């Protein structure tokens, strides 16, 4: 009898141990347990620690309450300004109601992932390229609101959403690089022009001050020479005033004759240069016989009077009279040279012979 009691006690103890092992559950700190008894959800979720369920009657499902980091696959889309982009993001969410997360949706992770992809494509189509590149904070907030609205009914809370990268086509990257370079060039030119304006104003003020005190300009020149010479240069550049060069140029020119009227420089420079005129042929020398009256004082009106005057002077030859007549007539042609005195038949011109006789008598 005693053995039967011992055997029964051991059997009951063994059954209790087996039941305990089958009913015992351990829930971690970051988990919550949702119990289904005969397929019906119990209202209270089991907290962390040791808990018991009815074996073969209850089914316990553990739900992680930690924040989940889920990458959103890259989505291709066209922005509002018709630019093709490829955007990927990351989403952070957690379960706030374990029972809703288990009952409301079959797989809350997959549901959140699909909703994030569709919301991201919607954000791409509603935004401009500049907003995607520079105004990401506002886009992140809009994407978070789009995801949080349906996720609340699933017992899921969206903690934050971040757009990670925006991939652009190579042609668009080159265009944006050229635009950025042009913008930097424009700013550099504006800054340079502003600096030139300020420098010109300061130089104008300095010029006015130096004009009031000419010695300041000389002191400034000496300071510049000192600054250049302090760098151990073998060549010293000394500025030379142009006004001094002009003064030396004017001083080197010959002074005009007194009383001579100088032609203005503008007229002299503008007058066209013409070749020098050919020298006029020299007239035959005028021969005046000794004792003859001055030709300027007594000018016979006719050839006959000239011949009479020559006869009175002692020149009886016809050649002498011809010479005297030629001298008396200012417009008469000059006598031919000696080489041409002889005529083609070998005879000598009587005017030339008379001129030679007159010259002989004068000697």
CATH homologous superfamily heading of the domain at 68-168: Band 7 domain
Calculate Rg over CA atoms: 65 Å
CATH architecture label name of the domain at 68-168: 2-Layer Sandwich
Distance between the termini: 207 Å
GO cellular component, one term: side of membrane
Domain Band: 22-180
Pfam families: Band_7 (PF01145)
Protein name: Band 7 domain-containing protein
List the helices and strands and how they pair.
Elements: H1 2-23, E1 24-27, E2 31-37, E3 40-41, E4 49-52, E5 58-64, E6 68-78, E7 84-95, H2 98-103, H3 108-126, H4 129-134, H5 136-151, E8 156-167, H6 170-212, H7 214-229, H8 242-252, H9 265-270, H10 303-312, H11 318-328, H12 350-362
Antiparallel strand pairs: 1-4, 2-3, 2-5, 6-7, 7-8
Helix pairs in contact: 3-5, 6-7, 10-11, 11-12
Can you offer a commentary on this structure?
- The chain is 49% helix and 16% strand.
- With 363 residues, it is an alpha+beta fold.
- Among the domains are: 21-63; 68-168, Band 7 domain (Tetrahydropterin Synthase, Chain A), CATH 3.30.479.30; 170-214; 291-336 and 349-363, no CATH class.
- Strands 3-2-5 form a 3-stranded antiparallel sheet.
- The radius of gyration is 65 Å and the shape is rod-shaped.
């Amino acid at each position: 009898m005693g053995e039967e009691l011992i055997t029964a006690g051991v059997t009951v103890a063994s059954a209790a141990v087996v039941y305990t092992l089958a009913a015992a559950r351990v829930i971690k700190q970051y988990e919550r347990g949702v119990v289904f008894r005969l397929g019906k959800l119990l209202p209270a979720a089991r907290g962390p620690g040791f808990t018991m369920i009815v074996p073969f009657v209850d089914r316990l499902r553990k739900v992680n309450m930690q924040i989940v980091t889920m990458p959103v696959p890259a989505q291709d889309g066209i922005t509002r300004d018709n630019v093709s982009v490829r955007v990927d993001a990351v989403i952070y969410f957690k379960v706030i109601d374990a029972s809703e997360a288990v009952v409301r949706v079959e797989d809350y992770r997959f549901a959140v992932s699909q909703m994030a992809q569709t919301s991201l494509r919607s954000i791409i189509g509603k935004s401009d390229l500049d907003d995607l590149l520079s105004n990401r904070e506002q886009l992140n907030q809009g994407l978070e609101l789009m995801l949080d609205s349906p996720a609340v009914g699933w017992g899921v809370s969206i903690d934050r959403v971040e757009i990670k990268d925006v991939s652009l086509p190579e042609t668009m990257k080159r265009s944006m690089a050229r635009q950025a370079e042009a913008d930097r060039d424009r700013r550099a030119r504006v800054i340079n022009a502003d600096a030139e304006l300020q420098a010109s104003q300061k130089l104008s003020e300095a010029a006015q001050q130096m004009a009031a005190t000419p010695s300041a300009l000389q002191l400034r020149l000496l300071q510049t020479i000192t600054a250049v010479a302090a760098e151990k240069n073998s060549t010293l550049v000394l500025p030379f005033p142009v006004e001094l060069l002009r003064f030396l140029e004017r001083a080197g020119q010959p002074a005009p004759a007194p009383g001579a009227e100088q032609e203005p420089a503008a007229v002299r420079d503008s007058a066209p240069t013409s070749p020098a005129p050919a020298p006029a042929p020299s007239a035959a020398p005028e021969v005046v016989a000794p004792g003859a009256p001055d030709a300027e004082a007594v000018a016979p009106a006719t050839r006959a009077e000239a011949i009479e005057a020559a006869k009175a002077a002692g020149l009886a030859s016809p050649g002498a009279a011809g010479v005297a007549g030629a001298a008396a007539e200012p417009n008469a042609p000059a006598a031919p040279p000696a080489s041409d005195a002889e005529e083609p038949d070998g005879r000598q011109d009587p005017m030339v012979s008379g001129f030679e006789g007159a010259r002989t008598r004068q000697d």
